[in-house]
Design brief:
The protein contains three helices and eight strands. It is α+β, with helices and mostly antiparallel strands. Helix 1 packs antiparallel against helix 2. The longest helix has 46 residues. The termini are far apart.
């Protein structure tokens, strides 16, 4: 009888370690994927010196930043969603930024609380004074990820952020020219 109770405890300890290790592995894989997504979005915004919505033609992704980002996200099968307003309020000075939530190539400037998007873009002007001659801004990208094992999403309140370099005279069709 003593050996059977000891074997049961050993099995419980063993299963606990398997669950903890699997959870840690799932979290780290999704976390690294969110960094890959964030870096890809930042790279494409910097490549176009802002967010251009109109490419060379309607069918071409060349020059259309959101279409390039959407193709990139489809390529790596990214589908996490989150609330832009919740994370943006804590991260930026409200006088100097504009916020947009993006789903594929559809976007909404000034999203409402509770609406979910694949990623969020914040355009932050570099100066407090609009009378300065230099027109510069940088973009902050908020990417969401969840603890996901297979198709089961356990928690979805995680995010990563990235910032572009300062872009001078950004070409921005999403927020309007700076």
């Amino acid at each position: 009888m003593r050996e059977s109770i000891g074997a049961a405890w050993l099995m419980i300890i063993f299963m606990t370690f398997i669950v903890l290790f699997s959870g840690y592995l799932a979290f780290s894989i999704n976390y690294s994927k969110s960094f890959r997504v964030k870096d890809g979005i930042v790279e494409r915004i910097q490549k176009h010196n802002g967010i251009k919505l109109y490419g060379d033609s309607i069918y071409s992704s060349s020059g259309n930043t959101l279409r390039e980002i959407d193709n990139f996200l489809a390529e790596i099968s990214y589908n996490a969603r989150g609330d832009c307003v919740r994370f943006a309020e804590a991260e930026a000075d409200t006088d100097r930024y504009q916020l947009a939530g993006v789903n594929g190539t559809a976007y909404k400037v000034g999203p409402a609380r509770g609406e979910t998007y694949n990623y969020c873009l914040m355009k932050i002007s570099s100066s407090n004074s609009p009378s300065l001659a230099i027109n510069a801004a940088y973009y902050k990208v908020i990417v969401f990820f969840s603890l996901q094992i297979g198709n089961i999403s356990l928690f979805s309140n995680f995010h990563t952020t990235g910032v572009t370099q300062t872009l001078y005279y950004p070409k921005d069709d999403l927020f309007g020219y700076s």
